[in-house]
Amino acid sequence: MKLKNLIRYTFFWCGMPESKKIYEGDVMLAQAFGRNSFTETDLKILNEKFNEFESDEKILEWIRTKNFDPGKPNKEIANGIMDYMQRRYIPAIVQWEIAVAFPSDWYERNKKYITCIWPPEESKYFDTRSVVIASLKAMEEKKLSHPIVAAHKMQIVRVACMVKKLSGKFPFVSEVQPKSFDRNSLQWWTRNIFFWLLREFFVRIHHIIKRYV
């Protein structure tokens, strides 16, 4: 890891500046931040429904009928993705919580440019690294090679460093870096900045030891 990125990785609450050559990016990769509905156990149902519907559109419609609440941070990320896609005419690969946060009419008009990343079959925590791996795989399948990352301001450095470690190339960083937390989040560490810092300190050390970044 380069020194400047190590410094940002350490002082992660500062986020990262938008990349100067971001116009060279050809796809958005968006990482969710918490959610207010569906426990980790409930994620198994999503996979079952996906196998049943075999369509992102249909499963998103089903999720909306359950009054799913993606939470404030994911709504803000979704809004940022919408703006980027409309201004730069590029596709997006997004974690499913963000896809649900898109207005249904907007998603219907733009669904051919959006790929959803769904949790795995086994019922377990869908961690950041697993989402990045799945996103890079989807990107490769679509023959895209210059990702632009979007994530919570407190998380974006870690996401970008994971992309670099897994792909061999540091991604472009977008200005889509919301700062909000949601006290109703089912993931306790995304409810407020105190809980986030309490957990993130150990996560950062773990990722260095495991060479995830």
Give descriptors for this structure:
213 residues; alpha/beta; 5-stranded parallel sheet; 9 helices
Please provide the ordered H/E string of secondary-structure elements.
HEHHHEHHEHEHEH
Mean pLDDT: 92
Instruction: Please tally the β strands and state the result.
Output: 5
Tally of helical runs: 9
Taking the alpha carbons of the first and last residues, their distance comes to 7 Å
Strands of the widest sheet, in order across it, are: 3-2-1-4-5
* Overall helicity: 40-55%
Shape: globular
| Secondary-structure content class | alpha/beta
Largest sheet: 5 strands, parallel
Compute the CA-based radius of gyration.
Answer: 16 Å
Which range does the strand content fall in?
5-15%
Write the layout of secondary structure elements.
Elements: H1 3-10, E1 27-30, H2 43-53, H3 56-65, H4 72-88, E2 92-95, H5 96-101, H6 104-110, E3 114-117, H7 128-141, E4 147-150, H8 156-167, E5 172-173, H9 193-209
Parallel strand pairs: 1-2, 1-4, 2-3, 4-5
Quick overview of this protein structure:
With 213 residues, the chain is an alpha/beta fold. It has helices at residues 3-10, 43-53, 56-65, 72-88, 96-101, 104-110, 128-141, 156-167, 193-209, and strands spanning 27-30, 92-95, 114-117, 147-150, 172-173. A five-stranded parallel β-sheet has the order 3-2-1-4-5, with helices on both faces.
